[in-house]
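Late entry, evening session. Most of the bench is empty. Finally got around to the prediction I had been postponing all week. Sequence below, unchanged from the version circulated by S.P.
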Amino acid sequence: MSAPIALTMGEPAGIGGEIALKAWQMRASRRLPAFFVIDDPARLSALAASLNLDVRVREIAGPAEAAREFPDALPVLPQALFRPARPGHPDPVNAPAVIAAIERGVALVQSGQAAALVTNPVQKEALYAAGFEHPGHTEFLGSLARVKRPVMMLAGPELRVVPVTVHLALADALHALTTEAIVACGKVAAEALQRDFGISRPRLAVAALNPHAGENETMGHEERTIIAPAVEALVRAGIAANGPAPADTLFHAAARKRHDAVICMYHDQALIPLKTLDFEHGVNVTLGLPFVRTSPDHGTALDIAGKGVASPESLMAAIALAAQMAARRAAQPATV
């Protein structure tokens, strides 16, 4: 992998800048690949000084300069803010800069100037106040890449989960759950596990929606009418899928050895076990895009922003995984 990783600023009032600085500090011990940040260089320099982080920030004109500068300084591709950021206090005035950083990152990875895209967390309320029309990062990236149904995966050292419905109220998620949506997620997940994770024969467990998988329809019918037909369709497509399985028995140690990913029916069914098992090393991966995108599996942490206590572990895991995925893609034969 010759091109560097592009890292977006995320919410400037959150911990994104701090964890980017700390990740660069730990670059050698963690063997991180070269990366650059799309951010305001002056902001990052001031933040490093305020947190007593020994990090030199160096402005670059383009990604091609990142590898040369990375050993000695954090390369930063300038993206000016509209107002100085105050830790813990998001300002919708800066939302256009946050969005522009994402758009520039996508353009750079699509053009091959960056090997992969890693996005720092955004504060959705600040973006919504500025007129942002997408539910979240995943949907925005899908729009930029012209992908109708991007799929979210949360990947950790011990578990991978894929929620079928994502940024919806639970009542709305139940109405949005369809056989077609489950099948689409399963197919995208299986393909990604092969292409990006090197698993030749992925095994998918498909979670039930209701307690005890509906208990013979005494606690719901969705298992029979929606989920079981999806599992059957995945099997017919040649995918090793099984279910619907009661969600309360899918995530313990022995069960995790029997599958490579769990297709979950809604957001918290997927994220609670993943974050409980290993909060610091979970990575958000967007599947189904024509480029690699990962992100830390945490939010902007406004309550600790600017205090110097934020952990860069999840960001470093996201950078490392992005590099691994990009290298696997680069090693595969080109398709005609």
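Two things to note before I forget:
The first strand starts at residue 5 and ends at 8.
The chain has two domains: 1-151+288-336, 158-277.
Will write this up properly tomorrow.
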